[in-house]
Write a structure and sequence with these properties.
The complex is a heterodimer of chains A (669) and B (318). Chain A is built from 25 helices and five strands. In chain A, the strands form two sheets. In chain A, strands 1-2 form a two-stranded antiparallel sheet. A two-stranded antiparallel ribbon of chain A has the order 4-5. In chain A, helix 1 runs antiparallel to helix 4 and helix 3 packs antiparallel against helix 19. Chain A is globular, with a radius of gyration of 26 Å. Among the domains of chain A are: 237 residues, no CATH class; 45 residues, no CATH class. With 669 residues, chain A is mainly alpha-helical. With 318 residues, chain B is an all-alpha fold. Chain B has one domain. The radius of gyration of chain B is 19 Å and the shape is globular. The chains are: A mainly alpha (669), B mainly alpha (318). At the A-B interface, helix 15, helix 16, helix 17, helix 22 and strand 3 of A face strand 1, helix 3, helix 4, helix 5 and helix 9 of B.
Chain lengths: 669, 318
């Protein structure tokens, strides 16, 4: 029943694409398409919420589509319902934002038809219940988002981003195809039910996990498969960037969870070792890259990589606990991962919307040309600040809650018997702690350089506040961030059916705890109460303000900035994005990026300007991607002459190939 | 009745930390001066400074935004809340379960996040230099602090400060390598977090050496008073934390009886005096280090704390 309604919703979204094409000449097309998307995704959101909270039993349907002997299976179980909530909440927010933002688009006809298809595809991936529909939807999701990435195809860097994205997406789908092929076995049992029932051999299962980690990980942005992400996510229009970063990476996480936790059955302990290591490294590298970026949207994209690392680290812990039968601990780690999935979809969408509003208002994403926008765009600044606080894992907002749960899960892991994990978990814990602190630095920089200080360009000084629809979307997300932060117990309880399904246990019921605290295991062990922390901070803050204004002084005088007595003539003397990151670049960058600063000082009397050049190398690109690209280029060059042969040569080649194939076939055991 | 007493005790703790904080700052200043053979300001000077600052007009830079005016209250509130949640004279206070040690560290992180933003608001290069160095220092100090929390939490089996203090007061603790490492690391982090020598100098106004002072350079009047008070509270918090974890003697258990509480208060004041004196001694016997030596200093703390955690993972007996 549920799943039928959901499929109708998806069908409506797909049907919007031809309507968008038909309406492309009309000025109302933008409003109609995004409005319709908003309504449909809201319905899907409510439906998913309903099935997550009230219907733990799975709802399935088989349609006579796709492979004739298989049909197309769809299913909503608690895991799918949770990810449908994430997808459709993000999609609804993006549609609402686009109602305002989309009006500034130069070429709406290049975005409008693909947008609803993209939303439909993400829903379908989560709904799919057989390998064929899953892969088909996955590929549809990749292709529709690729079309959106190159919507502004006149810019050469966008075309480059699209090219890299297409390559990486096909590569990812290929590995997933192999993973499902291995799981389905020789008889082609592609339905997920059949895969669940068949227990693959240890070696096969291990290979499947590695392939799934590559396939889903490349879509999610795991280092070193992340190279496409910071290119593609910022290239798309901002509401699509928000969807790609906030939602599509979560669909990739869903793919991994579905395979590793559900389809493969009982995990091996060493899987978690790989996942934990990748997660920790991804978190650290992601945030360090983010700190080095000048482009606001690219910094946000790298920060997505960091958060994906955090999610995968928690997933790795959950796998480890599950492998050793510590079900309650596994439920805690999995809850931490899922809550962070939800949280990140909220604040990353919010931040991309903010970046989109800034882009519309000023025409640039380069932080070195922004500044002082808090005066020109106060509302955008306010909600962007909430997003920055939330993503920096600061209480009382939501990012902290999931981070805190991850740390609580780490504190349970000395009980794990394996030595590899005993050494790996503290190291990953240190990496997560480092990346959390660096994330705070990254978002002080992002907010401080873009919104505070004085405008660094004319456009930044002349910016105007963004429109109501965009603001409504951002306020809604910011409010949700705050609510999850101060009442996390409700959301943790909502995740119980999912952890019950995947780990066979759940966290204790949180809404029973006194004063809405969250208590992962026992109150004497650890507890956190976001509501009270928030209330205390608000009460003491306002009481202090009131007392001081009433009894001491409430007078304000304005004057030029003091700055130790040095008048700063030009706004360019302010700290810039690059100079803000300089200490951190010096501490971490010399190792990770081989960062070098080359300063030249002209001799006395010369009028030449002094220069400072910063060189950063992307070692992953240089050592993992560039050799492959070079090799492919080289082979292509060598094989080029095959294109200019005579017909006789081609016939000989065809004949030779045929003979070889037949020989192979004949001698095949 | 019990609820009223509980509320009163929690309120007493809040007032105690607020009132003691400037005194502790004054004490450290006085002792440092005496160690340098100077007379030094009177012990109560910080209170006078605060009252005077409160009464003065606040001068804002032309470019300062609303955020700049809100941040002092935010920073003060966050620091005060955090300081009230660390057990001082009695454990198991009414709201002690509101935030465990990880959350307390994160609340302090919120305060720092906003203070670093304030440094960027006026659009001067000094504010920028302060903020950017502050986040560099915190990007190492915060993970070090978390690893310290991990190490101690793994020994005590809890991140709840009251439980940790009770455990550290029991006979189960004994001498442990990981605790020793954690204590050294915590001392380094406390020195860095509170902008003390050798990481930063709270008394300096020499442009290129200051970190914390550069960040709050544009503040004046009541805003500056709040930030100074918050800084004092933070120093008190870290000293209380060290006292509560490594010298938990005399802390009253969670019972309502006047004598243990009196002993608790007396012990707390004694601990503050001793630790404040040690801080003064440490500060006068060491020179300030270059900014880019600080990461090595804090990196050592991070590594020690990681080692302590690792030892706990490897064997329960360390």
């Amino acid at each position: 029943m549920m799943v039928t309604v959901a499929l109708f919703g998806v069908l409506t979204l797909v049907a919007l694409a031809p309507i968008a094409v038909a309406m492309s000449a009309s000025p109302n097309a933008t409003g109609f398409v995004y409005g319709a998307c908003l309504i449909v995704t809201l319905i899907l959101f409510l439906l998913a919420l309903h099935s997550l909270l009230d219907h733990p039993a799975a709802s399935t349907i088989t349609l006579p589509l796709g492979l004739p002997w298989l049909g197309a299976h769809f299913r909503i179980d608690p895991l799918a319902a949770f990810f449908l909530v994430v997808v459709n909440l993000g999609a609804a927010a993006a549609s609402l934002f686009a109602l305002g933002y989309g009006r500034h688009e130069e070429t709406p006809q290049r975005v409008l038809p693909f947008f609803p298809v993209y939303l439909a595809a993400m829903n379908l991936v989560v709904l799919a219940d057989d390998a064929f529909s899953f892969l088909l939807s996955w590929e549809l999701m990749s292709l529709s988002s690729w079309a959106l990435v190159i919507a502004d195809h006149r810019r050469v860097e966008n075309r480059h981003a699209g090219f890299v994205y297409l390559l990486m997406a096909s590569f990812g789908t290929l590995t997933l195809l192999l993973a499902f092929g291995l799981m389905a076995g020789g008889d082609g049992a592609y339905a997920f039910d059949a895969i669940r029932a068949a227990h693959p051999a240890l070696g096969t299962a291990a290979l499947v996990v590695v392939l799934a980690l590559i396939g889903a990980g490349s879509k999610a942005g795991l280092v070193p498969l992340h190279a496409w992400l910071p290119l593609a996510h910022p290239a798309a229009p901002s509401h699509v960037s928000a969807l790609m970063s906030g939602v599509m990476t979560k669909v990739a996480v869903y793919g991994f969870i579905r395979i590793a936790f559900d389809l493969l059955g009982a995990p091996q302990w060493w899987w978690s070792l790989v996942v934990l290591a990748l997660g920790g490294v991804t978190a650290m590298m992601g945030v360090l890259y983010a700190l080095m970026q000048r482009d606001l949207k690219r910094a946000l994209a790298y920060s997505t990589i960091e958060n994906i690392g955090l999610i995968f680290a928690s997933l790795g812990l959950a796998l480890a606990f599950k492998a050793y039968g510590m079900h309650v601990a596994a439920a805690l780690a999995l809850t931490a991962a899922l809550l962070h999935v939800f949280n990140h979809s909220l604040f990353k969408s919010l931040l991309f919307f903010g970046a989109g509003s800034v882009l519309t208002a000023t025409g640039t994403r380069d932080m070195e040309k922004l500044g002082g926008l808090i005066h020109r765009m106060p509302q955008t600044a306010f909600v962007f600040l909430i997003g920055c606080t939330a993503i920096s894992a600061l209480p009382p907002l939501n990012g902290f809650v999931s981070e805190w749960l991850s740390f609580q899960a780490i504190l349970l892991s000395p009980q794990l018997p394996s030595w590899g994990l005993k050494l790996m978990v503290p190291a990953v814990g240190a990496l997560l702690a480092l990346s959390a602190a660096l994330a705070a630095a990254c978002f002080v920089r992002a907010f401080g350089i873009v919104f505070l200080g004085r405008p660094r360009s004319y456009d930044a000084g002349a910016a105007l506040e963004t429109d109501t629809n965009s603001l409504a979307a951002m306020y809604a997300l910011a409010a949700t961030c705050l609510i999850v932060g101060i009442l996390p117990g409700i959301f943790i309880d909502a995740l119980a059916p999912v952890t019950q399904m995947l780990t066979g246990a759940r966290m204790p019921v949180q809404t029973d705890a006194e004063w809405m605290s969250i208590v992962p295991i026992a109150e004497s062990r650890s507890s956190y109460n976001g509501l009270l922390v928030f209330a205390f901070m608000v009460i003491t803050g306002t009481a202090t303000a009131f007392a001081i204004h009433r009894f001491a002084s409430d007078k304000i005088r304005r004057g030029p900035a003091w700055g130790c007595g040095y008048p700063d003539a030009s706004p360019l003397t302010q700290y810039s994005a690059s100079s803000f990151a300089q200490p951190i670049r010096r501490v971490f960058g010399s190792l990770v990026f081989r960062a070098r600063e080359i300063g030249t000082m002209p001799p006395p009397g010369s009028r030449a300007p002094a220069t400072l050049t910063v060189q950063l190398r992307d070692l992953i690109w240089d050592f993992a991607y560039a050799p492959v690209a070079n090799a492919v280029g080289l082979i292509a060059d060598r094989l080029n002459y095959l294109q200019f042969l005579t017909i006789r040569s081609y016939l000989t080649l065809v004949f030779g190939a045929l003979v070889i194939l037949l020989t192979v076939l004949a001698t095949w055991p | 009745m019990a609820v009223i007493t509980d509320f009163a005790l929690q309120g007493a703790q809040m007032l105690l930390v607020l009132l003691m904080a400037p005194l502790l700052t004054g004490l450290v200043r006085k002792m440092k001066a005496r160690l340098l053979s100077r007379q030094g300001p009177p012990l109560l000077q910080p209170y006078r400074d605060l009252l005077r600052l409160m009464r003065k007009d606040a001068v804002l830079a032309d470019n300062a935004s609303w955020l700049f005016r809100v941040i002092p209250y935010l920073v003060f509130a966050a620091t005060w809340v955090a300081a009230s949640l660390v057990p001082t004279f009695r454990s198991g206070l009414l709201f002690s379960w509101t935030a465990d040690l990880i959350a307390i560290i994160a609340v302090l992180g919120s305060a720092r996040f906003f203070l670093a933003l304030a440094g960027l608001d006026a659009g001067t290069s000094f504010g920028g230099i302060g903020s950017s160095r502050e986040v560099m220092i915190s990007s190492l100090a915060e993970p070090a602090m978390l690893m310290i929390v991990f190490a101690i939490a793994l020994i005590a089996g809890s991140t709840q400060l009251s439980t940790m203090a009770a455990f550290m007061n029991s006979a189960e603790v004994g001498l442990r390598v990981s605790l020793g490492l954690a204590l050294i690391a915590l001392t380094i982090v406390a020195v860095a977090e509170n902008a003390r020598i050798p990481v930063d100098n709270p008394a300096t106004h020499l442009e290129l050496t200051m970190v914390h002072e550069a960040m709050v350079l544009e503040y004046s009047g009541r805003h500056l008073a709040l930030i100074e008070l918050a800084a004092s509270l933070k120093l008190l918090l870290y000293i209380s934390l060290i006292a509560c974890l490594f010298a938990p003697w005399g802390i009253s258990p969670a019972i309502i009886a006047p004598l243990p509480i009196l002993i608790g208060v007396a012990a707390y004041i004694g601990k503050l005096t001793v630790l404040g004196a040690l801080l003064a001694l440490f500060e006068t016997s060491i020179a300030k280090m270059r900014v880019f030596r600080v990461p090595e200093f804090l990196g050592a703390a991070l590594m020690l704390a990681l080692l302590a955690t690792l030892l706990r993972f490897v064997s329960g007996s360390f």
